[in-house]
Amino acid sequence: MQYLGSPLELAHGRAWRNRVALAPLTNLQSNADGTLSDDEYRWLVRRAEGGFGLVMTCAAHVSPEGQTFPGQLGICDDAHLDGLRRLATGIRSAGSVSAVQLQHGGRRADAELSGRPALAPWDDPQRGVTALTTDQIERVIADFADAAVRAERAGFDGVEIHGAHGYLVAQFLDVRHNHRTDRYGGSAENRFRIVHDIIAAIRAETSPDLQLGLRLSPERYGIVLDEACALAGEVLSDRHLDYLDLSLWDAFKRPYEEHHQDRLLIEHFVDLPRGSTRLGVAGKILDAPGARECLERGADFVLIGTGAILHHDFARNVAADDEFRAMDTPVPERHLVNESVGPRFVDYLDDRWDDFVIR
Fold it and tell me: Domains in the chain, please, with CATH?
């Protein structure tokens, strides 16, 4: 049994000081051009100071046309490097391993923000979305690899491919809509291909010390559980990834699909052979007992979202106090400010959830 406070060794790069990672959280705090803002720097470095083993950025867009949110961090241009270097240095100085989450919005990208048409695996005229050509898919794969190179140049310890939540990579996995007739659509093998190609491209272009993770959603967005398990099994066993990050929405839930509800969702993945690849889970982990339960069920680490917003030192607290629990929401705006949550992030939390902020 590994404890929350025990170090986590990975196949590449530095060990994490514990089993508690900061989940990649949309926060809208970057500058309009994708460069790092002081607020985003403070938000992330404060979590490193609070003891998280891994501190990961929000989704950073790898292509100009992939931008999805206003105030989204960018990693698609060398103009982003100075801020990224500052951030990597700050996180490392505070004792955490650092990672950039690499993302492309696909059909969820915002053409008004990017000034470029949105592209996706299939045409969606009602949304003004055009299907990618095979050549354009290859360009996107190269963009992910270029962004990983940029992250490494900036001094980050690793990157995570965002293959979850209905963004571009997850769109290729969508069994309902991805009926492409080239090698990136139709069969499960073809729909999985972009994941393997991005992993291979990043490994080919970066050093052996760079940690590489992948985030997957095992349900929703046109993803069926049997296929999610199959893809997870492939990436866990091929030895290219350092970790798989499963965004479960609720780490203690049963699957949506009735014929799989004999077990918790997490239990469909923890017994998959994984060699040296680590398995992390995220979703409503708000206290030390819940985090320990995830490890007891077979996960190697947990990723924390809400708890990390409420407590910059959530990681230190759950490692030290077996009964620690995040405070209940809603919370006063002043509390969030004291926890280095910037004004745009506070506005986002207030707009997105009715019961998070008291103003």
Answer: 20-327 (3.20.20.70)
